[in-house]
């Protein structure tokens, strides 16, 4: 049996080690992909720190990956060994009411998430459904393109799909890590005005201004909501994207909305969140929208936007590390060392 290197996280002992495991075998409808690059995401920290559980006894983390098709479980029209691909980090459960009726993958009622429900890509090889693959241009830089599959696609889907941001609407973005920094770029590309970026770390605020924010604010200030109103001609925000979604940020983002504004909860946190008095909330007409992930169509659109120069990923990768240094990457992200946008593993 062939073996490969993979980072294995033991959900009982909450320890992770890079070890030799069998190379997985794709079934019909699946592809074995030789991983070229895979990002380290805050939700990987959520797994490692225990607040985003995996139902498996052990799992390979990593859900933001590119690579080349190494084998197909069955001959599949349009796909060949060697094709460069981006991988959507989800698969249909195959058992829910919509899956049983044969709806496409994006309609599954209980989608399974790569690196939580099945093995991810902090490994030399990964098996994913062919339905999760997006073909990349031959000349694509697979390290840069890897960050599309979450750090760019999740804010893209949150802003275009869930918030339905229109040109000239005002937007506030809480949290300027990997997702938030790209949220600023996407809001800029779509013509939002003004764009107000919020983060307690000064370097990340400076970076947000460089990639397209009009204003950058430390949200810990007591007058944060008043300042947002001033910067939006006294109206408040049309759209708030909360990439942190902690009990401190959600009420603030809600309070900063204009009448009928939309608050999108893009972050993943274990916190209870409060919307305040119901009579005040009802009168505000605010809409609070949960958001997770993206569709394969979002990835296809982002590949086009990057390929045609509309979206610049040249600053998206802060550090590239080999697989056996994945612990260093996790620590750098957890401790904000070098205030990374994305740290990428090259297995
Ligand atoms: Zn992620
Ligand atoms: Zn399903």
Automatic annotation (TrEMBL):
Keywords: Metal-binding, Oxidoreductase, Zinc
Ranges where the Enoyl reductase (ER) domain occurs: 13-345
Keyword Membrane: no
GO molecular function, one term: metal ion binding
Cofactor entry: Zn(2+)
Family: Belongs to the zinc-containing alcohol dehydrogenase family.
Full protein name: D-arabinose 1-dehydrogenase-like Zn-dependent alcohol dehydrogenase
Lineage: Bacteria, Bacillati, Actinomycetota, Actinomycetes, Streptosporangiales
């Amino acid at each position: 049996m062939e073996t490969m290197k993979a980072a294995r996280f033991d959900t009982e002992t909450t320890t992770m080690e890079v070890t030799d495991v069998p190379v997985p075998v794709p079934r019909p409808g699946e592809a074995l992909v030789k991983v070229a690059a895979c990002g380290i995401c805050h939700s990987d920290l959520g797994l490692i720190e225990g607040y985003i559980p995996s139902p498996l006894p052990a799992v390979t983390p990593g859900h933001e990956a590119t690579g080349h098709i190494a084998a197909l479980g069955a001959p599949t029209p349009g796909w060949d060994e060697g094709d460069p691909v981006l991988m959507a980090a989800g698969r249909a459960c195959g058992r829910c009411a919509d899956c049983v009726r044969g709806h496409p993958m994006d309609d599954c009622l209980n989608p399974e998430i790569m690196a939580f429900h099945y093995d991810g890509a902090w490994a030399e090889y990964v098996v994913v459904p062919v339905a999760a693959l997006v073909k990349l241009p031959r000349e694509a830089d697979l390290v840069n393109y890897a960050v599309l599959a979450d750090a760019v696609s999740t804010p893209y889907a949150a802003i275009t799909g869930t918030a339905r941001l229109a040109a000239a609407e005002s937007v506030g973005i809480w949290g300027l890590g990997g997702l938030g920094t790209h949220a600023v770029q996407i809001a800029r590309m779509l013509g939002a005005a003004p764009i107000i970026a919020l983060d307690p770390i000064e370097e990340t605020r400076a970076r947000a201004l460089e990639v397209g924010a009009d204003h950058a604010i430390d949200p810990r200030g007591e007058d944060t909501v008043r300042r947002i109103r001033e910067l939006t001609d006294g109206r408040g925000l049309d759209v708030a994207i909360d990439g942190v979604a902690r009990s401190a940020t959600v009420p603030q983002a809600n309070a900063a909305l204009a009448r009928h504004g939309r608050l999108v909860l893009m972050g993943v946190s274990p916190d209870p969140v409060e919307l305040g008095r119901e009579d005040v909330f009802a009168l505000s007409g605010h809409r609070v929208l949960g958001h997770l992930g993206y569709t394969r169509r979002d990835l296809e659109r982002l590949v086009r936007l990057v390929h045609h120069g509309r979206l610049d990923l040249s600053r998206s990768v802060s550090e590239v590390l080999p697989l056996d240094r994945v612990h260093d990457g996790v620590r750098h992200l957890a401790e904000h060392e070098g205030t990374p946008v994305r740290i990428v593993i090259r297995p």
